[in-house]
Each structure stands twice: as structure tokens, then as C-alpha cells.
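anyone else get weird line breaks when pasting these?? whatever heres mine. first is seq + C-alpha cells for prot A
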Amino acid sequence: MQKDTVDFYRRCNFKYFGEYGQREDYPSKFMIGCGGVYAEHVYLILSGRVRQYFINSRGVEKTMLLLSKGDIFGEVTALQRDMDQVATQTLTKVSVCKIPVAYFEKMLRENAELSFSMALMLSYKIRILMPQIQDASFCNAEERLKNLLLRLSIQQGILTRQGIRLPRKYTHEELANMISSTRSTVSRIMKRLAEEGVIKIIDRYIYFP
């Protein structure tokens, strides 16, 4: 059901916004938004992947969402008429469609299917964020990492002969940013998980056997 939900709202996003707005291309590691800015556009990802994260005064990062083709970001800031609270950075080369906020709101008011799709997308994002809050409140670094890898395998996993493979090569630094830990801690835990057979690493891809 979760995959069906994601497929539905992504199809709706392309159907109503894919031909509208201004296309822009960004290189990998490009900062699309840094927070503290009022929304002028909502962004539809045409290709590539981005991450949204918080960063504190000491420069410590916490990745909250990983977004890819068909996902929209900036919608919460637009609807709340508020300043963005997160930083958005490309993980790969990315193409987006920049949709003016006024048009985005107009389409939501006029189209029930799109409004329902947007509600599904927002509820899906909340379902991703809630376990992270639970992990941060109650789990140690190893438990947070295990839970993260399990969630990624469910949300993004590709079935192969070697097991369920995560679709991209996550670095230990990226994983550390997602669980509010350090690269060295993640490296130590990943080594132990591989030795115990919980995961396999093949050509830097993570597999669940």
C-alpha cells in the first residue's frame, strides 16, 4: 500500500505540474534552499535526488527527508506562508520544475484529485519523520542505524539475487547525518552488522540478505 500511495501522488504531481513552471538544472551538492526564506516557488523533482536537513550552530547536520523523481518540496512553506525551516541540497545532478506558489495554490483549490494526492504525500512524509523522532528519543546510535537501514530497505529497496539492495551507495557520513551520529561510529557499527550477517556490502551497495 505504501508504494501504491507514493506512485499515485508522484503521477499526480507530473500530471498537473510536469508541463508547467520553469525548468532548472543543478549540479550535485548544490544548495537549492538554506532556510529562513519565504517561499516563491514549489519544486517538482524531474530527475535526481535531494535531501532536506537541519543544521545547528555547531555545524552538525540531521537529514530528515530523501526525495527523488516525482516528489515535491517547498509545499509546506508555501501553504503556511512561512519561512523555510530546512536546508535543501542536491545529492546528484538534479532537474526541477519551479512552480509559482500562486499557481500551486490555485491548482489545489480547483482540483480534488490533486488535493487528495497532496494530502497523501504530506501524510507519507509524516510517517517517515515520526520513527525518526521515536529513534532520537529512545534509541542509541546502533539501534538508530539499524532502524534507518530497515526503513530505507522498505521505502527504496530493490529485490535482487543477493537480497534487498538500497538503490544508491550511501556513504557513512550520509548515514551518520541521518541518525545524528558521527562517521566513525557508523563505520564501526556497519562493520559489526556485516560481520553478523545483518547486512552485506557489495561494490559499496548495502544489501539485506
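and prot B, same format (seq, then C-alpha cells)
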Amino acid sequence: MIRLIFFRTYRQAMGLAYWLSRRFTAAGKLALVCLLLAAAFGADTTQSTAYQAAAFLALVFLISAFSVSDRRARGKFSLTRRLPRFGTVGQPVTYTATITNHTTRPQRASTLLETLPDPRPSWQVFNSVTMRRRPGWEGWLDNALGFSRWMNLIARRRPAVIGETTLPDIPANGAVDVPVTFTPTRRGRVHFLGAAVAQPDVFGLLRSHCRIDAPQSLVILPKRYRLPPLALPGVREYQPHGVALASSVGQSDEFVALRDYRPGDPVRHIHWRSVAKLDRLVVREHEDEFFVRHALILDTFGNADDDAAFEEAVAVAASFVCTVQTQESLLDLLFVGPQAFCFTAGRGVGHREQMLEVLAGVEPCAQPDFDKLESLVLRHAPRVSGCVCVLLAWDEPRRRLVSKLQALGVPVRVCVVVEQEQEQEQEVYFLPVGKVQEALWRLS
């Protein structure tokens, strides 16, 4: 019951703060504080100055409210965004917004406010999340109030915060282009539900809103780390049906010799010049496809409360995707979500950007079942030349998986994201949260 009361308090307080930030200018917020203070002191009628100030400010806000309603009726706008293809966590993203004025009068002193989805969680989500308790009475109090749980859920559900953008004067039946810059804080998608063109009242305290429906979305890729020059394990292996997978680079579809035609040979392999000389069908023979194929294993079975470690693991996986040269090799991304997934990039099969987009949407598994990932990896192991594992723990199931891969003759490089620094083990690289970049340089 207490948790429900605090949940409703947090939700209403955040909704009120959002409404105030959209409706009041900076001067309006200061005037509102002065009005509340004057009203508090003016309750004592002997304090005539405070009483008069409260009455004056209340009258000013009343006039502002009428002015705002009149401006809302006179405005009509449309919005077009030119978004980039991708954004990246922690890197500024700039796009161009075109605002068109559909009225016969110029619009001045306007502000563009983007509208994003409400990040507030529902009661079911809030109540189902249990944060890790800290020792002492502070941890007990924090768990009872649920404030850290609330802030953690808000951070997970809010990929970006876009501030207000000041617009130049918009001519009558004209348009203006303005750059909008924001910095994504989380991977995934930024959903633009619409926007509002805000205009201040005659006193500059309140703002009218002319809402614009302009839904769009932008994919935010995981952050990446710089990796040292890597010589990933593994050598060229025979890939069944590799020619169909590979592009024309490397050993793809290389000519070996000429031979007589056999029933079933592709017509495109007939060597017509030799046919003309020998007066019989002759075809070109190509060698089987041998090339390097690496597997990148992402562990999604971490602690549900340890969001920072999982995000770091995704960032490390994205760093490997950007580092591995896929022009002369294949890279398979293996992970388990609602089901087992295997995405391949390189040699004409897929592009690195597509794999990063997949990583942008990866979520931790709600019901950890590491056996699913082990089964997926072991089925895939005979086709790979080497393997890179990005794990969230170094326990017995994960040790067993690495041991099975090594027993199959697959070279393995193991990276484990941990909360605190640990002593390094042979062939295992521990990456502490907050010091991942420094720890990655030890991979060389």
C-alpha cells in the first residue's frame, strides 16, 4: 500500500513538472514562485504588502491566460524533420526541422517543443521491479520509498531529452529551417510523437501551444569503444554453400579448371570459347569456398537489476562489430531473446550497420535460461573459425560453454563485464563497469 502511494506521488509530481516546463517561461516560473510566497504571507491580512503583491500577480496571470488562449486559436503550423539514418549514444545528433506558418500573419518569438513518449512506468512495471538493496537503514528506506527504482525505470524508458529550440520569425505563409541538436542517452529508438510551437503571452509568463502531429522515429545505436589492433583467433574454414553466401571478394567463385559438361551444371558456367574449339560442351570449374567466419556471442542472461553491466556488454559487442573486418570474412552475432537469434554480416550477406541496428534493440532476457544460448552456440560451432564471447558473469555454466567450444577445437576469446575489478585469469578478460575502455586495451 505504501509503495502504491509513493508511486502515485512520483507519477503526479513528474507530470506536474513536465506541464510547468512546457507551459511556463523562465520568467513565469519565477513569478509563480513569488505568487505562492506572497499568497502564503498574504494569508495574514496585516501583511498588506504581501496581500497586494499576491492580488497583483494573480491578476497578471489571469490576463496572461486569456492572452494565451487567443494566441492558440490564431496559430496553425506544420513540421517536417530531416533525420539522419542513425544516432549513437553519447554523440550529439543534429537534424533539421522545417516549420511552416499557414496563417496570413507573421509569427514571432516562437519556440519549438518536441513531444516524446511518456517515460513514466505503469504500476505493474514499477511493482514488478526490485532493485538491489544497499546495506544499512538507507538501503531499507530507499527500497521502501522506491525512489531509486523509479529513477532507474525512467532512465531505461527515456532514450533522449530534447530541449526547446528558439525559432526565428516565421513569415506569413512561409517556412523556416532550424537545426535541432540533442544527445541520446540510451540505445533503441527515439519516437517523435509530434511537436508544439509555443508562443509567450503579452507579459512573457505563459506560453500558448499549437500542437503538430508529426510522428517519426530515429534508431540510436549503442556506444562503441576503441579497440586495439586485434588478431582474432581462427583460420580459413570450408563453408558449405559458401559461394552462395559470399560476394566476389577474396576466394569467392574462383576459377580452377575446365572440364566436360555434366547434367545439372549451371548454364552460366559453360565456357563458350572452348565449346567452339572442341565442338562439345565444356564448363568452368570453381573451387569450394574457404574463408574466415567468426562468431560473436552476446550474453543476455544477466541480473535484471544490473542494467549498467548489460548496456556495457552491448557496447563491447558493438565495438567488436565495428572492428572486425567483414570484407574478407563473415561475422555471426549469436544471442537469445524471446527466441534464439543468429545474424550474419560480411561477404555480401549483410552490412555492419544492420548488425548495429540489431544490437540497438537487444533486451535482457526476463527468464534466464543459459542452456538456450549454449545449444545455439554448439550447433553453430562447426562452421566458425573462432569465437568471441561477451559475458555478464564467469560462473559454472559459462565456464562449461567455453570449455566445450575449446574441446571442439574452436579458438575462443572471452570478455566478462563485471561490476568490480577482478584478478585476470588466463584467456579471460574482465571488464569492470566504468573502466571498460581501459580494460579493452589489454586485449592486444
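btw re prot B: The longest strand covers residues 207-221. The first helix runs from residue 2 to 23.
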